[in-house]
Amino acid sequence: MNTPHIFHSLAIVCAVFTATIPFTANAQSAHKLLRKGDEQYTKSKYSDAEKSYSDALKKSGKDDKAAYNLGNTYYRQGDYTNAARMLEDAAKAAKTPAERADAYHNLGNANLKQEKYKEAVDAYQKSLMNRPGDPETKMNLQLAKQKLQQQQQQQNQQQQQQNQ
Asked: Contact 110/80 with Cβ under 8 angstroms?
């Protein structure tokens, strides 16, 4: 549940970017910042990776990979609010169903950590629409549904107690 899906590895980045030449100066520097962030993330240097991904996002505009990786970096640092914001941006900007599924899955994880169970259920369902049958997402969806039901029951009990 807590492990973000990673779709943005160094090998994928290199293959994708070498296939799409020519670059602008901004795209090249954004690409270098993404690679630098990947190296820092791999070494668990999350605050350094956060800066690299944030700088890459500034240079490239709405880059789904930078937003996704920045979201995962926030998540690793326990900043679930910013993680959710970036992962939602990444999901909306994702170019493939697999990338969208990963972003929504991780968005669900960030919402689950914040006890936003309704939002977590929604994110996991969107992930499954993009990657039907993913066992980890299915498991997390069931957990989020259980937590949501428990939360609703507690709210109902509190409401009943206040009405008495």
From this structure: yes
pTM: 0.81
Q: Which residue has the tokens 């795209």?
A: 27
- Omega prior to 97 cis, within 30 of 0: no
Alpha-carbon span 132 to 126, nearest angstrom:
10
Token digits of residue 109: 């994880």
State pLDDT tens for residues 105-137.
999 999 999 999 999 999 999 999 999 999 999
Largest CA distance in the chain: 70
